[in-house]
Amino acid sequence: MKIIIAGAGAVGGYYGGVLARSGHDVYFIARGAQLAALKERGLAVKSIDGDFALPSPKCGEKADSFGHADLILVCFKTYDTAMTLDLYKAGVGPQTAIISLQNGVDNEDIIAGRYGADRVLGGVTFIGVRVESPGVILHTAASNMIIGELDGGLSDRVKTLGDVFVKAGVKCKVSGDIKRDKWAKTIWNIGFNAICAILECSAQTAIRFEETRSVVRAAMLEWIAVAKEEGVDLTPDMADKHIERTFTAGEIIPSMLQDKRIGRRMEIDTFNGKAVELGIKHGIQTPVNKTLTAMIRFWNGE
What is the span of the domain harbouring residue 7? Predict the structure, then answer.
């Protein structure tokens, strides 16, 4: 397949790397030091599943010379979704599938507004991965993905794409309710991202201390409450399951802490800020998420 990775940071670099390794024609859209490193030294992946490298990956700031892609994986930060749509527009053809692997629950609507809902699928990934240095991806935990059609159902398209990931070594599940899956994944992000950024610690460290573990759980439960009002059936036990799995998942440095460490804006409005926004909409109190949001916005300089 011809595949464009729109945003070759940690997540995009890793998944693009494993897809290229398995024989697909992959083009990486990157910026700054990451792009320079890809051009000069290639991509190196240090993985718990085995290290590998791509000496000369196809890459650039845009995908204008690549032609129409079969698949585009969008991995940019959520606050960059709208402003990066043009970077891969030349790759969008009549049969192109676009999957957002971004955080949050709003990106698919933004992408569909430009390229049409028929081209867009939802995606969720559970992975511990970060950019160790420009051009070097460090994969420390998991490599699980869920993809699905936005309107539900198990289409031939989504089954084919699921097989592509599985054959590349990714544990990919095809879902008939990707909306619920995306909201369920956000439970984890709501619980761990902000508090780990504030405390400067891994997800595992945050929950080893009973009092901070209770903060993680409380933030999750507030999200579950607002999700119910949005018509998404999440249950309180999902918070406990996320916490239990995190204990044994390997080292996970949440993306917001990674961003904070390199001076990049953190995605607080995608996570805890979204819980606060929906709480206001539905008249639900979200004091834990409101506090976490205020602290991260302070760090962001908002």
Answer: 2-175
Beta strands in the chain (DSSP E): 2-6, 25-29, 43-47, 52-54, 58-60, 71-74, 97-100, 120-133, 136-149, 171-174
Same domain, 19 and 167: yes
For 51-119, strand residue ranges (E) read 52-54, 58-60, 71-74, 97-100
Q: Is the pLDDT of residue 21 over 90?
A: yes
What pLDDT is attached to residue 281? Answer: 98
Percent of the chain with pLDDT over 90: 98
Domain co-membership, 157 together with 50: yes
Domains contained in the chain, number = 2
How far apart CA 229 and CA 219 sit, in angstroms, is 16
Instruction: Report the chain's mean pLDDT, rounded to a whole number.
Output: 97
Is the confidence at residue 58, as pLDDT, over 90?
Answer: yes
Cα-flanking dihedrals φ and ψ of residue 155, to 5°?
A: -75, 160
Residues 225 and 152 in one domain: no
Which residue, 148, 175, 202, sits at the end of a domain? 175
Are both 113 and 226 inside the same structural domain?
no
* Orientation of helix 178-199 relative to helix 272-282, angle to 10°: 120
CATH number for the domain that contains residue 189: 1.10.1040.10
Boundary residue ending a domain (175, 206, 226)? 175
Quote the DSSP letter at residue 208: H
pLDDT band at 302 (very low <50, low <70, confident <90, very high): confident
CB atoms within 10 A of CB 33: 12
Task: Give CA angle at 173 (94, 217), nearest 5°.
Answer: 120
- The whole model's pTM is what? 0.95
